[in-house]
Design brief:
- The structure is a single chain.
- β3 and β4 form a beta hairpin.
- The protein has a six-stranded antiparallel sheet.
- It has ten helices and eight strands.
- The protein has 205 residues and is an alpha+beta fold.
């Protein structure tokens, strides 16, 4: 039995509502020489350019976002990040590459049936090779101004890093948007990998 146009349209809307996807990858003051990158990955995306510009490194941030890890210890086995020489980064090199300063951030925007969300990763102060994460139930567009000033005429009117950007200020977003700090591997597993369609609190991220 075929579907009429109305049924087909309704099914399309349901698929849109039930979408699970990664929308964007954002890097702020990361990868040693990258000030700001916002990469839309909702459609087919081609990255091209000279070697050692960070194309692979940007995509490799997915390992940091999605693995239930909280530090760069045993980095060679956990992440297998490689430098331009072909040699795997050690713990210190991995941490310093992705989080060279306290104001370095890696951000992922995704969405699921409960709506958009973001993961924000940053250097942990309490452990030498650690990194921490915040999850917020918002789209990146809602918090973009915290990281990037689009109104600035700098960089050929593309904008510049928000001069007020600080880790202390970013942490305040957790209270402002009713987000969470994920401090342990267990919390990451329970929050990111345990989806419950009937319970938004357990399935939001």
């Amino acid at each position: 039995m075929g579907l009429n146009a109305e049924q087909s349209s309704q099914n399309s809307l349901n698929l849109e509502k039930d979408r699970y996807q990664i929308n964007k990858l954002i890097c702020v003051n990361s990868m040693k020489n990258i000030c700001y990158i916002e990469l839309d990955v909702t459609h087919n995306t081609v990255l091209y350019g000279e070697n050692n510009l960070g194309k692979t490194s940007i995509l490799s941030t997915l390992k940091l976002h999605l693995l239930p890890e909280i530090n760069f210890r045993d980095s060679k086995n956990k992440y297998a990040f490689f430098g331009s020489s072909g040699k795997a980064y050690n713990n210190q090199e991995s941490r310093d590459f992705y989080f060279p300063t306290q104001n370095s951030f890696l951000i992922l925007e995704g969405q699921n049936p409960f709506g958009p969300y973001v993961y924000i990763l940053f250097r942990a102060s309490e452990e030498q090779f650690g990194y921490s994460r915040i999850v917020l139930p918002v789209s990146y567009a809602q918090i973009e101004h915290e990281f990037w000033d689009k109104q600035s005429p700098k960089n050929q009117q593309l904008g510049t890093i928000n001069p007020q950007l600080s880790l202390k200020h970013i942490k305040l977003l957790v209270k402002q948007y009713n987000g969470k700090f994920l401090r342990t591997s267990q919390e990451i597993r329970e929050t990111i990998y345990s989806f419950n369609q009937l319970n938004e609190e357990k399935g939001r991220f």
